[in-house]
Structures are given as structure tokens and as C-alpha cells.
Amino acid sequence: GRTTSSGRQGEPTLNVILPYCGGGDLFEILQESQQSENPGMSEPQARYWFRQIISGLHHLHTVAGICHRDLSPENVMLHDNKSLIIDMGMCLRIPHNSKDDDDDDDDDDDPTKTTDIQNGTTKRLFKPQGACGKLPYMAPEIYRNRDPFDGGAVDIWTAATILFCMLTGNRSYQRAHTSDPQFYWMTHGLPMLLSDWGVVLTPEAVDLLQGMLKVDPRERYTLEQVLNHAWFAVDDHTDDHVLT
For residue 121, is it within any domain? Predict the structure, then answer.
């Protein structure tokens, strides 16, 4: 894609031009799957597409330096055996502390800082920005809208809800609160929920979902932990990703 600048009546705008994606979006695929005799993707299919989604997040977080905040099946386009993340309208640039900030012990109690599990340094969090994104994929800390949040951890959560829908063929919760029964069981009793639905997943898939769906973002899997997870180490056949 590319960007152009234009303006109407003196107001500048930024236009994002993306290539045409003939495969539609992931939401359409999941909707069709939910109505089929065997809803959900096979693990090889889900792994093929989800690996690309996670790789896209890795590029956004580490190369572009932004978090998406509105990742959802509607914002994942499919084309030529590739998935593309779109709709950057809610992206935020990930704030980082300077080296001097990291060496300063006077502000250890600053609520806008936390310890980065990945590399042991502090990184600055976002102040609450209001509930944003789509409710069935929204992270609980965004739904609560009370505390500073880690944009990267928010994207990990939303990615997990997408993987959940891909593997189970079921919809996600209606809102990220324990009063929502499906949210409760997804976060507190996932194996039992899968058993009740008759969904059989490998232990690695269940562990990945549980690690990414930790309600406490400080306990949630990091992007590196997801990329290096055993579930991604499986060597699938080259045509296992084909969606029919």
C-alpha cells in the first residue's frame, strides 16, 4: 500500500491506498465456517493464517513502532495465500522511555510505567483512551478503561480471540467482563468450554490460547513468546492451509 495527502476546503487528509484483495476478509470465512457441518478450521489451516497475522503484528510493533488496537477478523484480508492486516485508524505509536528514564529509580511507582517481560527494561504505557475496537475482540483492560495499558499486550489479546474463533468455529464473547458467561469460560475454564462444545484441540493449541487470554496483561504471553511457542513449531504439509 501507499499513502497520499489531499485536502478539501483547507482541511488536510491522509489517504491510504491498499491493493485489491480478492479473497475477502477473514470474517467472511469464519461466518461460512460457522454454518458448515464441521465449523472451524483445522489446526494446520489456522496455523498457516495465524502465523501471518502474528508476523504482521511483529512488523507493526517492532518496525513501524505502533500498536493496532482494532485487530479483528474484519480487518484481516486474504489474497493469494497471504493475509494482510488493514484499517490502521486506531493505531497508536508505542511510547518508549529514554535511557535516562530507564536508569532513573525515582519514578518506580509511576503508574504509566511497567516492566517489559521480554527484555527487563521499563516501557511507558498508554493512559486510558476510551473503549475502542469491536466488543467481541476487545481486551478486558480496554473494556474497563480505567488503568494505563500496554498496546502490545492489547494486540496479543485481540489476536487470541481471532485464533479462538478460527479453531472452534464459534463466536467470541459479547463483552470482556466476567458477567459475560463465554468470556468467563474462555478465561477461567477454556478446557471445559472446549469439552462442552466437543472441540478437540492439541495441548499446544490450548496452552497458546490460555497464555494469550490472560486477563492480567502482565501475565499474558508476549509477542516473542507467541512466535516461539511450540504450536508454531509443527511442520505442516504445504497444502494444509487451503480453505474450502
Answer: yes
Secondary structure E strands in the chain: 2-8, 11-17, 66-67, 76-79, 82-85, 92-93, 113-115, 122-124
pLDDT tens-digit series, residues 169-191: 999 999 999 999 999 999 999 99
Q: Find all residues with CB under 8 Å of 31, minimum gap 6, and list them.
A: none
19 CB neighbour count, 10 Å cutoff: 11
Check if the beta carbon of residue 72 is closer than 8 Å to that of residue 162: yes
CATH code of the domain covering residue 155: 1.10.510.10
3-state secondary structure of 163: helix
The predicted-structure confidence for 122-168, as pLDDT tens digits, reads as follows 667 888 888 889 999 999 999 999 988 999 999 999 999 999 999 99
Q: What is the pTM of this model?
A: 0.84
What single-letter DSSP state applies at residue 84?
E
